[in-house]
Amino acid sequence: MKKLMLLAILVSGNSATTFANDKLNDTWTFTFQQQTDFFVERCVNFPAGKVQFSFTKPATSVEFNIHYHFDGETKFPMKFTTSNAFSEMYTMEMAGEYCFMWQNTTDAPAAFPLSFSYKYQA
Length: 122
Description:
- The protein has strands at 5-11, 14-21, 25-32, 39-46, 49-55, 62-70, 73-82, 86-92, 96-104, 112-121.
- The radius of gyration is 14 Å and the shape is globular.
- The strands form 2 sheets. Strands 1-2-4-9-6-7 form a 6-stranded mixed β-sheet, with no helix packed on it. Strands 3-10-5-8 form a 4-stranded antiparallel β-sheet, with no helix packed on it.
- The chain is mostly beta strands.
- The chain has no helices and 10 strands.
- It has one domain (5-121): Jelly Rolls, CATH 2.60.120.
- A hairpin with a 2-residue loop joins β1 (5-11) and β2 (14-21).
């Protein structure tokens, strides 16, 4: 099994964090920084099937998406902006790495925690 990878990268002068793993069920809390365009990405290798996921209410408006890479293109089957908690079932038609990503759309008053959980269902 692949070990949890932690990558810190710099994007357009703003901090970003990407985490990747192979856990099919997980709960994860991270600190979301306050500056506009800060993003956090969680990528998971899933077999084809369904994943139930949810995240807590962010302190500010965030853009959320699920994306994957196929044939040299990035596909965004789900993408929206919210300032509310969210829960959804998503169907993965093929096995592969799927990424859950949050990005600040405005400056937050301060850094804030965001909790994310997911559970795979065959």
